[in-house]
Amino acid sequence: MKCFLNLKFLMKNILLTFGVSLLCCYSYAQKSINLSKVIGKKSEVGATMPLSVVEIPAGTFIMNNHGDSTSSTSQNQQRPVLISGFYMSTTEITNAQYHEFVNWVRDSIVAKKLGGQYVSIAGNDTTINWKAVAKINYADPALLAQLGDLVLNPSKTISARRMLDPDKLVYAMEGFNYQEAAKKVNKGRDASDFMYRYTVQVYPDTLAWMRDFGYSNNEQMAVNYFSSPKYQNYPVVGVSWKQASAFCDWLTKHKILEKQKRKAGNAGGKARLPTEAEWEYAASLNARNAPKKEADTLAKGAGADDQIAENTKVAIPGEGKIFPVYVRGAKKGAYGLYDLADNVSEWTTTSYYEGGENFQNRFNPDIQWGTPESESKSQRRKVIRGGSWKDTPTFMTTENREFEDMDASHSYLGFRIVINLPE
């Protein structure tokens, strides 16, 4: 009986190997294509995708620890929590959407540097003349000569030409720390004591593509991923928690609040990163009524093609994600959200604190520990959620949970936003 089983197993593997060999010989055979046609096709650029959101209603769900290996005190804990309603972006923030932010910062700094027709000054207020700014030609040597230290010396650039220094594209973050102001020990103190101000360099870390993977050829992605229009509807990566927060601050002050002012509507809208609880709640709603086969694949990891490739060591073209992909390339979930389990992992606003689930409130739970100015490494850790293109199928799940320093940037880490609007 044992010999029969071994013979049956051997025949099965022979047939499997033969079948996959035929598959590779015929199914994946490629015809030669004229290079000029390939270049033309690959150079086509689609329209920029607008930022879209879906409403996530208030509700209750069971929040657990996802088997979090980073925590030694929270194994298998589950608790019901209540979440207020909010709006969430259907996709991760794209290169094009983040580019708009970077360009706004660039234009604001340049306009103030040039003065004259580009600004209007009334007392202590300086207003940008955006119509005049839109006509600025950043390739004009005469213009660049007027920008002084905002421009890199040609000897320090790859092209040996004058160009704006990305490190000088700085956004000023200003706000009020309500959590500190609400503490009893701070009662009676001046409101100005709780104002925060710091600056953030906004240009993404494009060299993250080179640092994340040693002995790997990712130069093309480092050079082109953020700058090429071809990737404009792909998720922005190489952005830190501070940069993602700065984008949200800009979106709030210069998009949402300004639109509310023009429409004479209720003021008070705010864009921000989601809390971990909000992210997980949205993911749980989005996964409702998912096909059982799809759910099993997410839970178990490898599918049939992965098993064939593992057993035969034969490469199967087109399987798996190599680098990030178009943000609406996958099937959207029940609530219209894309790519919570993969594409890129996502920042949350929640601080990582080991054992924090033991004392979080059950109403809109969140932990904020430390500030952007904190020097303590433990106070600088932020929770990131979801898998990414670099992960094995086992980790391409909404249960994936890690943490990073708020200044960290990676080629597999991006963000999506939530928006609160007055009812």
Number of strands: 16
Gyration radius, rounded = 25 Å
Please summarize the sheet with the most strands: 4 strands, antiparallel
Please give the count of helices.
12
Could you say what the CATH architecture of the domain at 55-93 and 269-423 is? Answer: Alpha-Beta Complex
Give the CATH level 1 class of the domain at 55-93 and 269-423: Alpha Beta
Structure, described:
By secondary structure, the chain is α+β, with helices and mostly antiparallel strands. The protein has a domain at 55-93 and 269-423: paralog of FGE (formylglycine-generating enzyme), CATH 3.90.1580.10. The chain has twelve helices and 16 strands. The protein has helices spanning 2-27, 35-42, 95-114, 130-133, 141-145, 178-182, 208-211, 219-224, 241-262, 276-286, 292-300, 304-312; strands spanning 53-56, 59-64, 78-83, 86-89, 119-122, 125-128, 151-152, 163-164, 170-176, 195-201, 270-272, 345-351, 381-385, 401-405, 413-414, 418-420. The strands form six sheets. Strands 1-4-16-11 form a four-stranded antiparallel sheet. A four-stranded mixed sheet has the order 14-13-12-15. A hairpin with a 2-residue loop joins β5 (119-122) and β6. The chain is globular.
